[in-house]
Design brief:
Helix 3 crosses helix 4 and helix 6 runs antiparallel to helix 8. By secondary structure, the protein is mainly alpha-helical. A hairpin with a 5-residue loop joins strand 1 and strand 2. The protein is globular, with a radius of gyration of 23 Å.
Length: about 220
């Protein structure tokens, strides 16, 4: 009988420890600072320009991995309670790589719409015409930057504090926010963004992607 009682006590203690561990793990999960933001459209909404398969892989796997990694990396660092932009502006190494890729992809995915406004207007159009003469000229220069970027990286349209526009080609996780500029459009030139749909045909990818860039959204970022 004593043996049974002892076994019962051990079983109860084990159960309490296991339950406490599960609750602790759950609390840690709920305390994660950053989470995967939902897409503003269905995963198949941008097809055939970007396939559902690519969207699920790119958003649901790649972006999620950057966010999960960032949550782990910032624990116990000065960035633990910082917003994403602050982390990108001030970090280096693995924290920067994951934070910048998280920010880059959030901007990227929110630049598209299945019902996109295909041309800019208002102040943004005026700023584009001031720098490149016309929207078509801008598209040619931006597309050339995307096509010619060596390896993996991003091509950005960004503005300075006075509203002047620039095209930046950045390697790896680069973002012009680290140089004091505000990114308003970013195109992912990492192969995971397009290879399943276009293989090595990067020029075709950028040609098609103009049809889903929503210039209403880009214009709102410019203001």
């Amino acid at each position: 009988m004593k043996t049974k009682q002892a076994f019962k006590r051990i079983w109860i203690v084990t159960l309490l420890i296991t339950t406490s561990g599960a609750l602790w793990a759950q609390q840690q999960t709920t305390k994660e600072k950053f989470s995967l933001p939902p897409l503003p459209y269905e995963t198949n909404a941008l097809a055939p320009v970007i396939s559902e398969t690519t969207i699920k892989l790119h958003h649901g796997k790649h972006l999620k991995a950057y966010i999960d990694n960032l949550n782990k990396l910032i624990v116990g660092t000065p960035f633990e309670n910082c917003d994403l932009e602050t982390i990108v502006k001030n970090s280096t190494g693995a924290i920067f790589n994951n934070a910048a890729q998280a920010l880059n992809h959030i901007i990227y995915f929110n630049s598209f719409s299945p019902k996109a406004e295909h041309t800019p207007s208002g102040a943004l159009l005026a700023a584009i015409e001031k720098e490149w003469g016309s929207f078509d000229n801008f598209k040619k220069e931006f597309s050339a930057a995307v096509t010619s970027l060596f390896g993996s990286g991003w091509v950005w349209l960004a503005k300075d504090k006075k509203g002047k526009l620039y095209i930046f080609s950045e390697s790896n996780a680069g973002n012009p926010i680290t140089k004091g500029y505000t990114p308003i459009l970013g195109i992912d030139v990492w192969e995971h963004a397009y290879y399943l749909d276009y293989q090595n045909r990067r020029p075709e990818h950028i040609e098609k992607i103009w049809t889903i860039i929503d210039w209403r959204t880009i214009g709102a970022r410019y203001k």
